[in-house]
Amino acid sequence: MNKTIIDQIGNTPLVKSMVLNTNPNVSLYFKLEGDNPGGSVKDRAAYNMIKTALDTRQIDKNSKLIEATSGNTGIALAMIAGIFKLDIELVMPESATKERVQTMKAYGAKVTLHPDGIEGARDYAESKVEHEGYFSFNQFANDNNWKAHYKSTGPEIWRDTNGEITHFVSSMGTTGTIMGTSTYLKEQNKNVQIVGVQPTDDSNIPGIRKWPEAYLPKIFDASKVDRILEVSRDEAVAMTRRLAKDEGILAGMSSGGATAAALKLVNELDSGIVVSIICDRGDRYLSSDLFE
């Protein structure tokens, strides 16, 4: 019985869609990443990035850490930095929900809100690294982001579908989840189809991005994604509400976007086992209008 909170990261439930999937020849499963202790899929990457940096002595207890985040990575880094007694500053867009800011502060992090969105937050963090001696994990370019999913998310999905998964669907933000999971699943069966989800050009969906070229995550490798499906903000919001009402899954908007894409895919297929990532819990969006 020597388990710590860190031992609770990963091994999240895989549950079958009971209502939303109406294709009797296809099974749709949701991977419930909100069951991680920090409430999102980002616990995996945050732990792997911090632990590896400590083990390789890139950082120690005296390091000044900084990271730009749209939310979930920041919460995960705040939680794990607190456990390891590390000081961290998290830079977020001003539009971040109150719950996210308060959660990071509860874990002991300093939070800075930036007026120019996630791109502005990234520029601010990079400037502090360059000029003030800060260390950034840079989740967008850190191989330990996607390797967390190669080591855990991919193997869990393969195990829990008895190796029968045919399609994997994931929203794309930093792209760590889709890169690591794809790498593992393709090693097991090169025919598994990897489907990435992006917003339509006129849509802003927290957690899903279509990056300008200059900000494209360095860990992203287009050859590891077989297909990209686009969803609108309206589709993502509507599906997030349906996930809660019909499936009993309270999640954030990026999970609604992934589910909308997964259902488009499911309705095209004659057979298959589709797994879609539910990347966080919906309770950190209750102060927004997502569920109104």
TrEMBL record:
Cofactors that this protein relies on: pyridoxal 5'-phosphate
Any GO BP annotation: cysteine biosynthetic process from serine
- Cite the annotated pathway: Amino-acid biosynthesis; L-cysteine biosynthesis; L-cysteine from L-serine: step 2/2
Which CDD domains does the entry link to?
CBS_like
In its UniProt record, a GO molecular function of this protein is:
cysteine synthase activity
Positions carrying N6-(pyridoxal phosphate)lysine: K42
Give start-end ranges for the coiled-coil region(s).
Answer: none
> Pfam families in the record, alphabetically?
PALP (PF00291)
Binding-site positions, pyridoxal 5'-phosphate: N72, G173, T174, T175, G176, T177, S254
| Keywords, comma-separated and alphabetical | Amino-acid biosynthesis, Cysteine biosynthesis, Pyridoxal phosphate, Transferase
Identify the PROSITE patterns for this entry.
Answer: CYS_SYNTHASE
Q: Which reaction does it catalyse?
A: O-acetyl-L-serine + hydrogen sulfide = L-cysteine + acetate
Q: Where is the Tryptophan synthase beta chain-like PALP domain?
A: 7-280
User: Which EC numbers characterise this protein's activity in its record?
Assistant: 2.5.1.47
PANTHER family per the UniProt record, alphabetical: CYSTATHIONINE BETA-SYNTHASE (PTHR10314)
Q: Which family does it belong to?
A: Belongs to the cysteine synthase/cystathionine beta-synthase family.
UniProt protein name: cysteine synthase
- What is the species of this protein? Winogradskyella epiphytica
